[in-house]
Input
Amino acid sequence: MSKFLELDHVTKTFGSSGILGQGSLTVAVDDVSLSIDADKPDIITVVGESGSGKTTLARLLLGSHTPTSGIVRYNGKDFSKLTKREKRNFRREIQPIFQDPFESYNPFYKVDHVLDAPIKNFRLASSEANKKRMIEDALEMVGLLPEETLGRFPHQLSGGQRQRIMVARALLLKPKVILADEPVSMVDASLRATILDSIRRLNKELGISVVYITHDLTTAYQISDSIMVMYRGTVVESGSVDAVIPNPQHTYTKLLIESIPQPDPRDRWGAEPPQQNWDIQDDELTGCKFSDRCPTPTEECKNGTIDMGLIEVAPNHFVDQCCLKCG
Amino acid sequence: MVKSTIEETRVSNEQAIKTYRPDARISDIDALIVKDFSVYYETEAGTVKACDNVSLTLKQGERFALVGESGSGKTTLAMGLMRLTRPPGHIAKGSVKLNGRDVTKLSDDEMRKTRLSELALVPQGAMNSLNPVMRIEQQIMDGIIDHLDERDSRPSAQELDEIVKDLLNRVGLRPQVARLYPHELSGGMKQRVAMAIGISLKPNLIIADEPTSALDVVVQRQIMQTLGRLQEGLDASIMLVGHDMGLVAQFADTIGVMYAGRMVEVGPVYEVFSNPKHTYTQLLIQSLPSLKEKKELVGIPGLPPKLIDLPPGCVFSPRCPKPTEECKKGKIEMGLIEVSPGHLVDKCCVNCGQN
Output
């Protein structure tokens, strides 16, 4: 099996602790490994709250951040050692879809512009007619009618339509991986299903791997194959969705699942969970990073004498040791 | 329009609410009575009826959720109730009775005093509702000072400081936040500040416009639960505006579903979720993914109609999976009708025989 893209024990920090110790160090991604196979297209979900390092992870995958330690490999080769040509190839094979369907457009250009630009840049079309057909095919693939979308300005389209054009744009380049960073969090609930369904179809029908970054576990459960739960830059639980979601082991995963607003008035939230204490700097945290919000932390969890790191509790289900051993 | 025996409706409504929010304190006082309220936008192409003939009643202590997709008129209605509609929009007709006074008839000055002290808006604080160049304490004090009567003496700096700290404490923020600027806060904290401003003059009605839409699930839950606690502490009513049916099921007592500027279904949350009558409400509930089972993701096909060019007949008929000929041609009667105590549905979906 060839690994298309691989993160090998990658850490990314921002800022520094400073010479006199007054600076602040943020560990955005802490010793994370992840691999995307080209042969076996999967939908991998990265889930966590804001500030958990999801977007930094996405940027590492896109090559727009260089890791502080660890290696990012593209087709088995260290990303920092790629030639210009290889990098260009890489940029075609991995395509991002961003959160905000309003800000990813230039309001002065018609929406055709975002579809023309990649074709021009990568010289994908041999003729105008060819280009037109490519654009129309891509739009139809995501369930849009070309005659209702092309030639319009972004403000004339709905948020859902705009976001689907972004999916179509990614599709034009025939990528191997689509990296979708919160693609539906700014879209109406009723349109989310449609967009996620078109992403799933790309995976099933065209064999494109998808990295789906979200804080919404319900949609993650519906569309993805495997899942990584992040908290303060660390992976606290991972595995196949069918193993993790019905049987969460980490306290944080449990909190995430409990906090989903279930569309059922008979099944309401319990007591209010504690807020995250952002005053604690990352380098001040000893022991388990979740211990300050954990409802049942032991002394070992807090002072860091407990073993940390993922262990396999069931086939394809990994959990941080801390939450298993503390009882 | 529906002419039900109003007294009867209210008692049963209250009973329905009590069954799933047992500690709810809902009084008999009507905090808000909206009647045939319409907000139109006059454009060169014609009149856009963004909010058309909406009627609803909220009791003191009730949590009402207004749902609908973008462009359904929910924000137009909420802003209209506060008389914050901007030209070319205007309140075309109807009345809004708040604590017995018709706010549509108040002078601009009286209305200005009424806002915040009687009905307060909690905007989407995580976005850009806070002034980036003012400290948090200044932004909280602003409203309090502005609402002082001429004969009131201005509170001392120390008193104001105490008020600000108390408000921050109520919304779950540390007193140090007072000295910070908005960019130093996370999205959830900004939303908490927006709530602190909203409750600063103890309003009877809080209008919360998508208070959590850009926040993650855990923070969303914390914010909603804080908002609920504040509302119960003030004995105020809440109108929650949003599109997340899950949030509505968790939070609200009653729900109103809007589509194309009209109210198409109103009722107690429990009743509407277990027995939705309007096809649009049914589709909204079905389109929600759940953790209980894996199923095909189905959205609602089609797009909401252009409000300037509404389809003939039932406004939902172009997207309805099972419209009858009458629905499409408009031969069917429209308007809300009561199907069970407190549960009102557009006649079209009741009479077409498909539901």
